[in-house]
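Dock adenosine-5'-diphosphate; give full complex structure.
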Amino acid sequence: MSEAIIKVENLCFQYPGRSVNALQDVNLEIAEGEFVALIGQNGSGKTTLIKHFNGLLKPSKGKVFVKGKDTTSLRTAELARSIGYVFQNPDHQIFAETVRDEIAFGPKNLGFSEERINSEIEGVLKEMDLDVDLDEMPFQLSRGQRQRLAVASVLAMEPSILIIDEPTTGQDWKESILLMNLVQNLNDKGHTCIVTTHNMNLVSLFARRVIVMKSGNIFLDGATQDVFRREEELLTAGIKAPDVYLLARTLIPQVQLGKPLTPQRLAELLNTQSNLG
Ligand code: ADP
C-alpha cells in the first residue's frame, strides 16, 4: 500500500454539551489513490470524522494527519487545497449567480491566475460532463447538473482528495451512476475518493474499500467484497449487504470473491461453477 494520505490516530471528539463522545478512539489510514465508501447508520459518526479530515473540527484527543501534516497546524483554507468536500445537498454549496463564478470562486480564493482559472473552468466542465452555458444561473440547471457543478467547483481547486457526501440524494439511479462513473474517472486519474452513502448497491459497484462506522468507532474495514460477506455483523450496524452478496452466500458460499460482486460477475461465477460441476 502506498503512503497514507490521511492518517487518524486515537481520535476522540466530543461536541460541546454532549456527554458521549461522537468519535471514540478512531484509528485509520487511507492511502493515496484509494476509493473508499464510508458507511454507517445516521448518527454513527461519519460526518464528524470527515469534518476532521477537512479541518472543520479539531480532535478533542488524538491526531489527524493529511499528507503527513497535523491538521491542527493547518488552516482550513490550506486544507482546502488538498481536500475537496462536496456537500450532500448541492444547493447548500452553490451560491454564485453564474456557472462561471461558481467554479471560479475557489481557485480565485487560492490565488490562481485568471488564465489558470479559465483553463480550470473548461477542464472541470469537461470532466463533469457538463455542457452548459457559463453565464447560466446554477439554479436553472437540473438537480443532477447542480450536483455535478458542485463537484466541478471543488475540482477546480485541484484537490488530491475528494470527499463526496451522499452523492445520490435526490437523484435517480441513472444520474447517480453517471456521477459515480465520473468520480471513478477521477479516481483512475489518481484522486483519492471518499464517498459516504446509504446506497449499498452503489458502494458495491464503485468502492474498493468499505469502512463501516458504528457508535463513533470503526466497526468493519476491508475490501468491499469481504465486508459485504459479513452480513450478520453488518446487520448489527444497521446495514443490509446488497442482495447480490446474499445470493452469493446461498449459491456459492465456498467461492473466494477476490473483487467486488456485481450481478454480472455473480452470473459468471455461477456459470463457471456449473461448468466445473
Ligand atoms: P453521521 O454522519 O454518521 O450521521 P454524525 O457525525 O452526524 O453521524 O453524528 C455523530 C454523533 O454526534 C451523533 O450522536 C450526533 O447526534 C452527534 N452530533 C452531530 N453533530 C452534532 C452537533 N453539531 N452538536 C452536538 N452533537 C452532534
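Observed: The chain has a mean pLDDT of 92.
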